């Protein structure tokens, strides 16, 4: 049975666009949580196949307005992603995860700046399982600046340089950020993912180019959580989302390795899969995740 859910997204525009006038919103779009891997359809907690009808965003209007700003950098960038790139301040850290400053998301992801060695920033990767122990994956939106349309774990983003996301005790700042972004990207309500239910398992440090201009250099917190949640993807962030079991994930890996269907995985997700995921999945099913938590080690991969 197909379930359609209305999910309004009130997307604010950049202050630089505040004086622009916009035409009427475009026609509503349909965003599906469905199978794109030609794999057996996984089961959802509430239905076997879920689609969410999203409210129209102002991406088209904002992009048109932005295109008139000839003197602005990256004039062709999607308006929503542009706002996030210039307004969000990432937390700069050293290789021991000590906070050393802050910088715009834009600068933190410019490859030429990454190569200076001064843009290492804190990040997190959420791995959300339902109570059938299936992992929720997402395909990043085509408008994402870094790694568009690649498949990855449930949610990957950054704690920001703000008081609530700088709290170091019990890694609360990172947990707060994870809860915030699960709502932003997948429409998962905060009450579905209480911050005390995230289990930080480890940290890893990695560097990866996206294309000739953009890339990542992150100290990434790996957060696991087992919850049945309501999922309503935001199309400005997520193209599709899907639960997979172990065998379905292995088939996905095979297709990515073979280059089938143009399928690609994010570099951070692949590092976690190759080094940790399947052994940690055993503990997900046993309910013993805390036994393998090691937040003292920073894995340099």
Automatic annotation (TrEMBL):
GO terms for molecular function: isopentenyl-diphosphate delta-isomerase activity. The keyword Isomerase applies. GO terms for cellular component: cytosol. The keyword Isomerase applies. Its EC number is 5.3.3.2. Pathway: Porphyrin-containing compound metabolism; chlorophyll biosynthesis; Isoprenoid biosynthesis; dimethylallyl diphosphate biosynthesis; dimethylallyl diphosphate from isopentenyl diphosphate: step 1/1. It catalyses: isopentenyl diphosphate = dimethylallyl diphosphate. Keywords: Chlorophyll biosynthesis, Isomerase, Isoprene biosynthesis, Photosynthesis. It comes from the Eukaryota. Transmembrane segments: none annotated. Residues 119-271 form the Nudix hydrolase domain. GO terms for biological process: chlorophyll biosynthetic process; dimethylallyl diphosphate biosynthetic process; isopentenyl diphosphate biosynthetic process; photosynthesis. InterPro entries: IsopentenylPP_isomerase_typ1, NUDIX_hydrolase-like_dom_sf, NUDIX_hydrolase_dom. Belongs to the IPP isomerase type 1 family. Catalyzes the 1,3-allylic rearrangement of the homoallylic substrate isopentenyl (IPP) to its highly electrophilic allylic isomer, dimethylallyl diphosphate (DMAPP). This is isopentenyl-diphosphate Delta-isomerase. The lineage of its organism: Eukaryota, Viridiplantae, Streptophyta, Embryophyta, Tracheophyta.
